[in-house]
Design a protein that fits this description.
The chain is globular and about 60 Å long. The strands form 4 sheets. It has a 6-stranded parallel sheet with strand order 4-3-2-10-11-13, sandwiched between helices. The chain has a 3-stranded antiparallel sheet with strand order 6-5-9, covered by helices on one side. The protein has a two-stranded antiparallel sheet with strand order 1-12. Helices cover 43% and strands 16% of the residues.
C-alpha cells in the first residue's frame, strides 16, 4: 500500500471548499424552498426529448450522482451478486446483503478483513455489470461538465470521465486511511482474495475453482493493522489532498458558470444525503433563471413547485432513460 501525494497545509487551507459551500447551499434550500413538490410537466417522452435538447444546448452540465446510478448499472448489494460472493458469510452469520455484512460484529479481525477484501473487490475492482456510466459519458463527454457524487465505487473514472472533473465527496472503496493519510489498497485486496482461495481466470477475474470453498478469514499477517476504510461515516473521515483538490475544482466550476445556462442533472440521488446534491441543485436552479434542473430517478423524481417550469422530473430506470436519450440523439 502506498500513501497518497501530500500538499502543504498552507496550500490546502487556501483552496476553496466546494464541499462546505454545497452543504451551505443545501441548508439554504432546506430552509427556504417551500414544501410543495411537483413531478414535472408533460409526458415522460416529452421530458426525455426536452432533456436531450438541454444537453445539446446548455453551456455546462453539473452531474450529481447517487447510489441509484450504480444500482441501475447492476451494482446491487443483495440477490445474485451477494449469493455469488458472500453466501458462506450469509449462511454463517445470518445476513443477506453486503451492506449489513459490513457492519456485522465479527469474532476476529481475520474474518472482518476477509469480508471487506471481497466487498472492496466486487464493488471497486470489478466492472459494473451494465454500461450505464459509459452511456452517460457518451452523452456528456463533449460538453463542459463536472461530476459531484456520493458514490465510492470509482465507476466514473472506469467509464472514461476526466478525473479532474470528478468530486467523490464520501470517499473511495479503493483507499484505506490512517493517521490523517490515505493509502491505495489494490495490492492488499488482491493478496487477501488469493489468501481466501480465489484464483484469477484468463480475463483476470477472481473465481473459486469447482470443489473448493473459499476461506472465511485471512492470515493474521495480512491484517492491515491501524487502517480503516476511507468512507465518510463520522468525523474520522480523512479528506486527503486529492479530495481537497476535487472540492476546490467543484467550487471553481460552479463559480465560473453560475450565470450561464447550466443543466443540473441529478441521477439516482435518494433521501440519505439530499443536502449534498439534491437540495443544492434546487437552490442553484432557483438562483439562476437560465438554469435547468433535471432528475432521473425511479420512484423519486420530483422538484419544488418554485422551479417546476425549469425542471424535468423523469420517473424511470436511469439506464432506460439514457438509452432513450441516446436514441433521440441518433435521429
Amino acid at each position: 500500500m502506498f500513501s497518497r501525494t501530500k500538499i502543504n497545509a498552507y496550500t490546502r487551507s487556501s483552496l476553496p471548499n466546494g464541499y462546505l459551500e454545497t452543504i451551505q447551499k443545501g441548508m439554504i434550500a432546506a430552509r427556504h424552498i417551500c414544501g410543495d413538490m411537483s413531478h414535472g410537466n408533460g409526458t415522460k417522452e416529452g421530458q426525455l426529448e426536452r432533456l436531450r435538447n438541454e444537453i445539446s444546448q446548455c453551456d455546462a452540465i453539473v452531474v450529481g450522482a447517487g447510489a441509484g446510478l450504480s444500482t441501475s448499472a447492476g451494482f446491487v448489494y443483495s440477490g445474485e451478486r451477494f449469493a455469488k460472493w458472500f453466501s458462506d458469510f450469509g449462511t454463517k452469520f445470518g445476513f443477506d446483503d453486503m451492506y449489513s455484512g459490513g457492519f456485522y460484529p465479527y469474532d476476529s479481525q481475520e474474518e472482518f478483513w476477509a469480508y471487506w477484501a471481497r466487498y472492496i473487490y466486487v464493488n471497486r475492482y470489478l466492472d459494473a455489470p451494465k454500461p450505464v456510466y459509459e452511456k452517460l459519458y457518451n452523452l456528456v463527454h463533449d460538453k463542459d461538465y463536472f461530476v459531484i457524487t456520493t458514490n465510492v465505487d470509482h465507476c466514473f473514472q472506469k467509464a472514461g470521465f476526466d478525473k479532474k472533473r470528478l468530486f467523490y465527496t464520501q470517499g473511495d472503496y479503493g483507499l484505506f486511511q490512517s493517521n490523517g493519510k490515505t493509502y491505495d489498497n489494490e495490492e492488499w485486496v488482491m493478496k487477501a482474495m488469493e489468501a481466501q482461495g480465489f484464483v484469477k481466470d484468463p480475463n483476470g477475474v477472481f473465481f473459486i475453482p469447482d470443489g473448493r470453498k473459499p476461506m472465511m478469514g485471512i492470515p493474521t499477517e495480512l491484517i492491515p493493522t491501524g487502517m480503516a476504510m476511507n468512507l465518510r461515516s463520522d468525523d474520522s473521515f480523512v479528506e486527503d489532498d486529492g479530495w481537497h483538490r476535487a472540492s476546490a475544482a467543484y467550487s471553481d466550476f460552479l463559480r465560473r458558470h453560475q450565470n450561464l445556462r447550466v443543466l443540473y442533472l441529478e441521477l439516482g440521488v435518494g433521501g440519505n444525503t439530499p443536502i449534498i446534491i439534491k437540495y443544492p441543485f434546487w437552490q442553484m436552479t432557483r438562483n439562476n433563471d437560465k438554469a435547468i434542473y433535471a432528475c432521473i430517478n425511479y420512484g423519486q423524481a420530483f422538484c419544488p413547485v418554485e422551479i417546476k417550469d425549469r425542471s424535468l422530473c423523469i420517473n424511470s430506470d436511469i439506464s432506460e432513460a439514457l438509452d432513450a436519450i441516446l436514441d433521440l440523439t441518433r435521429i
